[in-house]
Amino acid sequence: MLKPAKIYHCTIYVPSYSMNNVIDKLGEQGICQIKSYEGKDSELPFDDKQLRKAEELHSRLKIVHGVLEKHRTVVSPENILKSLFFPSPPKRQRVDLHSLDKALGIFEYKIKELEEKVLPLVTELGQIDQDLSTTSYAIEQLSLLPDIATKWLFSSRFLEVIIGVVASQNAERLEKEINSPFYIKSISDQLSLVIIIVAKEQKSNIDHILHESGFQAVSFPSEERTPREIIYELHKKESVLRKKIGGYEDKIMELHRLHHEEVDILHEEILGAQQKIHVLQDLYNAKSFGMIEAWVPLRDIRQFGKVVIAVTNNNYYMEFENNLTDAPSLLSNPWFIRPFELITNLYSTPKYNHIDPTIFIALSFVIFFGFMLTDVVYGTALLLIAFGIYQGAGKYNQGTKEFSFILIIAGFFTALLGALFGSYFGNFFQSLGWDIPTLLDPMRDVVPVLIITLLIGSVHVLLGLLLGFIENISHKKYKSAFQLQAVWIFFLAGIVCLLGKGVFLYVGFGLIGLAVLMQMVFNFLDGGIIMSVLSVFSFTGFLGDIFSYARLMALAIGTAGIALAVNFMALMVIDLIPYAGWPLGILIFIVGHLFNMMMNGLGAFIHALRLHFLEFFSKFYEGGGSQYKPFSIMRKVTFTEVEKW
Predict the structure, then answer these.
(1) What does the DSSP 8-state code read for residue 627?
(2) Residues ≥6 apart with Cβ < 8 Å to 240
């Protein structure tokens, strides 16, 4: 509990023909982390044919999946509240395990079937879309023309008719520069249609003028009909094309309804195959045997051995090593502490065989949070909301379950400390004349509350120093233990003694003097006289770490102050505004307290993290470990019948 779980480094030698089967079974059990082979190259080079095939199938499936998702049936999604509190259980389908070659063959057959159903529709739909775009463009171009037969707008044997659009501000200048028959029609505030008639031999002379003015030619068919008549026919064609598109989209939507679960299963199965192939790629292979290196937690050793024995029919050789320094860290805490591993890992995973601070975070984090938010109603509301999420979405999502559990405990401590501070919607009931039992009021008893926060900070920092001292001593880092922790333990103890009288004063000054002397000596040995003298200023930084805990008081006052302001405004509106005062006052009350709860709840969470990451961890915790990640095939929409040995 105070350190990561014990892990063994296991090396297994198995017959080559058993390698795939061993990896299959281990991937379904999730009881070890496979380690990449770091020795000399394998006797048999890895054949990446399977990997290339799996990647090809994955790419083909992504195309089919993209088409189906783009045309998926539009359904009303679960609202946020339902998805959090009353989610539907995920559908999962049983699948069978096959050898990689057989599995890839099955995947290819199924993907080919899907492609034959989906891709022809996509091709047809693309052609119709192109026709529709062409038709829409023709309508757009024709709508610019004057309503005469379009054949009269084409060039003749001797004359060139130029039709296009140009920026309105350039139209008149263009007419003057060309000095030929010219027609201008404004089609918008920015654009004008121009029709220019010039002799054939003069066309080349005005091309550069047209280019400089930003002229864009308009294209249209030469017919006896007017643009309006042609547009009418094109609109009918456009309507037919849109109906065809709708028909094809309905067919693809139906395919999505029929096959989207199959596609999701194939996607998960192919990813699992790729995962297995990558693992096999990192192992040592010889002609007759293969070698697997794995990290195995102590709790799974027996199961691991049973799997290997059963799969290889007892044809294996296995070695274990337990004196490790580079093993991954598997945090091992009781169920009620385990959710707080989220916070530990958010900073950094502890190194193997080093202190795991999760158990200490579990208590101090929720106390800090509750101290800063500190309101019975806010805490109760947070507890109930988090409990609903824990019982709802938490059933199917481990991360949601763990985070909601943290909020449940944080809500409990918020309500508990809120009761000690007499805060129920801030001072709302006191404003109504009720007598609410109060141990301390953060708005009035500022100095006592500040003293409490500094005491909390001192205890928290001292705990970090003691943990660091024990950690360094246990790893025989004696100099670090006294330089990094003992100095500050003596200094802090000296400050505490100075609060007493008589002999305690002498002890206090003695401990502080000893701490300063130790700090200067250690820094002199490390960096010389200048570093030794400058190190004295680090004591002010240490005191700054203690005073940083005053933010507990600051946020408690902030929560109480905003609540007081909300209550004052709500009651004032009710008193001063007839009739509409009550609904308006209630609205201000609800919105104001929701805002206060959310914003100061967020602030409490962030500042509680900060106090742990900067003030607490800096005294003892290095982190820098690698998290234990068991080799386990991801299965969200599928499951296998895992054999029990």
Answers:
(1) B
(2) none
For residue 454, give the H/E element and its range. Answer: helix 446-474
> What are the structure tokens assigned to 312, written together?
């290889």
Cα separation, 48 vs 357, in Å, equals 43
Using only the alpha carbons of the chain, give its radius of gyration.
Answer: 38
**Residues with Cβ within 8 Å of residue 222, at least 6 apart in sequence:** 150, 151, 154
Contact 44, 287 (CB under 8 A): yes
* C-beta neighbour count of 253 within 10 angstroms: 15
CA distance 68 to 442: 58
pLDDT of residue 42: 55
Alpha carbons 632 and 398: distance in angstroms, whole number: 16
Secondary structure (3-state) at 314: coil
pLDDT of residue 74: 58
Angle CA(386)–CA(390)–CA(395) in degrees, nearest 5?
160
Q: Which two tokens stand for residue 298?
A: 């102590």
The gap between the terminal CA atoms of the chain, to the nearest Å, is: 28
Residue 47's pLDDT is what?
A: 66
Distance CA 86, CA 609 (A): 30
Q: Per DSSP, what are the bridge partners of residue 329?
A: 627
Q: Which domains occur in the chain, in start order?
A: 155-221 (3.30.70.2750), 338-619 (no CATH)
Q: Phi, psi at residue 637, to the nearest 5°?
A: -115, 5
Q: What does 82-144 look like in DSSP terms, one character per residue?
A: HHHHSPPPPP-EE-----HHHHHHHHHHHHHHHHHHHHHHHHHHHHHHHHHHHHHHHHHHHTT
588-615: b or e for each residue (b if 16 or more CB lie within 10 Å)? bbeebbeebbeebbebbbebbbebbeeb
Tell me the CB-side half-sphere exposure of residue 496, using CA atoms within 13 A.
13
Q: In the prediction, which pLDDT does 63 show?
A: 94
Question: Which pLDDT belongs to residue 40?
Answer: 57
| pLDDT at residue number 419 | 94
Look-up: residue for tokens 């193997």?
352
Q: For 457-490, write each residue's pLDDT tens digit.
A: 999 999 999 999 999 999 999 999 999 999 999 9
Provide the 3-class DSSP secondary structure of residue 29: helix
Integer Cα distance of 134 and 129 in angstroms: 9
Cite the beta strand spans of 191-345 per DSSP E: 191-199, 216-217, 284-285, 289-297, 317-321
Would strands 93-94 and 638-639 be described as parallel, antiparallel, or unpaired? parallel
* DSSP designation for 47: -
d(CA 427, CA 564): 6
Half-sphere exposure for 417 (CA within 13 Å, toward CB): 24
Angle at 253 between CA 248 and CA 257, to 5 degrees: 145
Confidence at residue 184, expressed as pLDDT on a 0 to 100 scale: 76
Residues (pLDDT < 70) of the chain are 1, 39-47, 73-79, 286, 642-645
The count of C-alpha atoms lying within 13 angstroms of the C-alpha of 276, restricted to the half-sphere facing its C-beta, is: 28
Amino acid at 578: P
pLDDT in tens, 241-254: 999 999 998 999 99
**pLDDT score at 105:** 92
pLDDT, residue 435, reads 86
CB atoms within 10 A of CB 618: 14
Closest CA to 326 of 357, 353, 349: 353
User: The tokens of 100 are what?
Assistant: 């990689």
d(CA 549, CA 493): 18
